[in-house]
Amino acid sequence: MKTSNTPRLCAGPQVVQQTPTKFWNIASVGEDSGEIVLYGDVVARQPVDWWTGEPEPGLYIAPESFMEDLAAVKGKSNITIKINSTGGDLYTGIAIHNAIKGLSGHKVVIVEGIAASAASVIACAGDEVQVYPGSMVMIHGVAGLLMDYYTLADLKKLQKDFDASERAIAEIYHAKTGIAVEQLRTMMTRETWMVGQEAIDNGFADTLLEGDGPDVSVSADKQVLLVAGIRHNIKGLHNVPSTIRINSIHAAPAAGNKPTGNGGENRKEDEPMTLEEMRAQHPDLVAQIEQQAVANAIAQERARIEAIDSIAASVGDAQLVRDAKYGESTCTAEQLALKAMQKQAALGAKHLKDAANDNAESGAADVGAAPNGGEEGSEADDKAKVDAIVGIYNTTKNGGKK
């Protein structure tokens, strides 16, 4: 989700590619024909690497230069728009929908895999929407990630903004399907998935194409949807059709292709591929997995450093903090806190031990308590003083006689 309160219509990022891939492709494919290919996440701007500032590799649909690129198909009589996207940023989706809707030619949208969330808004720009039996269309309500302090008035305003955004989407769906706006909003609230003919029955598509269409499978944890070879992060979605095939952690070879090399030709059908076989047969997929692993590692390291910085002041030991971040034995913020506590405990124990040694070496243990409140003299001295006082008293009392 976006780190703002901007309404959004879908979840997480797509899997990345080996090299940065442009987020769309718009081209003239004939004298009077044009084609627009929209694969990947719908985003407000091209993501960049936090460390380098370079564009993140991956499939993205963003508004940068989109209107300029549309010049390649403006004026064409026939324009084909191919979509395989689980959506993303709402306002970007509406902007692209309006831009395509404004083209003068006959626009045919082909849902080559999935048109979900904001991508379903874009699909409604077509004069004709075509789907395969396995193509999917999904609609749901807007959502946003809030990261700030908000008053009740702020939240009430945000609620009104979300409501207005959701009504705008429903109006676009209504123009395409003819379904009443309130009924559409109910469908959006419960996150409605439509497969093939279902999209046609609900008015979101017009034509059912021949063939089975895209190969679709979902991970066992329902976090990743693989559609026509494109991996979509669907974390946060709830009603993914149960009819979608569950895929295993190991990719299967493409239909009709038998594994070759590295002993693969003798491998049983249900035996997992080796890494070498995967790299030989699916280099792009392996590259995607490796790139995703790198991205995850960077994110985890960044989070570790930020967590350490958040407790550095309470640790109060700059060297200990540096070692935790960059030393030979790096650690997490939790481990750093434990080390700091252990160090303080060790310093306290040393202080007590040093104090005990100082006391032993001072000889204080050999000094006894002084009698008579600490005054000088022995008990015999005290008796002599008392006897003298009594003698003086008696002399005075008897006229100087003893």
Describe the structure.
With 402 residues, the chain is of the alpha/beta class. The protein has two domains: 25-249, 2-enoyl-CoA Hydratase, Chain A, domain 1, CATH 3.90.226.10; 272-361, no CATH class. Helices cover 40% and strands 17% of the residues. Mean pLDDT is 76; it is low at 1-6, 10-24 and 249-267.
Summarize the structure.
40% of the residues lie in helices and 17% in strands. The chain is of the alpha/beta class and 402 residues long.
CATH fold title of the largest domain: 2-enoyl-CoA Hydratase, Chain A, domain 1
Record field, number of beta strands: 13
The amount of beta strand, in percent, is 15-25%
In terms of per-residue confidence, which ranges show pLDDT below 50 for 5 or more consecutive residues?
Answer: 1-6, 10-24, 249-267
Number of domains: 2
Helices and strands, in N-to-C order? EEEHEHEHEEHHEHEEEEEHHHHH
In helices, the fraction of residues equals 25-40%
Structural class: alpha/beta
Mean pLDDT across the residues is: 76
| CA(first)-CA(last) distance | 113 Å
Give the class-level CATH name of the largest domain: Alpha Beta
Secondary structure tally, helices:
11
Q: Give a quick account of the main beta sheet: strands, pairing sense, barrel closure.
A: 9 strands, mixed
Radius of gyration (CA) equals 39 Å
Q: Give the overall form.
A: elongated
Write out the CATH superfamily name of the largest domain: 2-enoyl-CoA Hydratase, Chain A, domain 1
Write the CATH architecture name of the largest domain: Alpha-Beta Complex
